[in-house]
Specification:
138 residues; 4 helices; 68% helix; 0% strand; flat
């Protein structure tokens, strides 16, 4: 039993190490280009190409854009969560077939209060008309 637990822990550690190394390598490549160009521009008399700085800045922005794909390639849980978010997003933007039924259900879930005779504070919720967020299941 201990052998199986240690193998599982080692497998997880290897996966985490691979993810950290991948994200770090992408970071170094993308930001290193910008840093090296700015160092060259500041401390040397070399004339840089007019396209060098915009390309370096594009690489910096590319770093942020590529991180989710790096996580998705390596981490299964990340892929599952992203797939769930995308599916929920698509489901909530789909046209509603039973709009009248949904409206009736929302009216039934509307929170109202009864007027009280006493001046003491009430534990009841105020009548604010709470409705569920689109795409949520109640």
């Amino acid at each position: 039993m201990t052998y199986l637990c240690t193998q599982g822990v080692l497998k997880i550690r290897k996966r985490v190490t691979l993810m950290v190394l991948t994200v770090s390598a992408i970071f170094v490549i993308c930001w290193g280009t910008d840093i090296i160009l700015h160092i060259l521009e500041t401390f040397t008399s070399h004339k840089l190409s007019p396209l060098a700085i915009p390309i370096a800045h594009t690489m910096v922005m590319f770093n942020s854009a590529v991180n989710p794909f790096a996580y998705a390639l390596i981490n299964q849980k990340f892929r599952e969560k992203m797939r769930g978010m995308i599916c929920c997003s698509l489901r909530s933007s789909a046209p509603r077939v039973n709009a009248a039924r949904e409206l009736q259900d929302m009216k039934m879930m509307n929170i109202t209060t009864k007027p009280t005779d006493s001046a003491e504070p009430s534990d009841e919720l105020p009548a604010i008309g709470l409705y569920p967020l689109p795409g949520t299941i109640m």
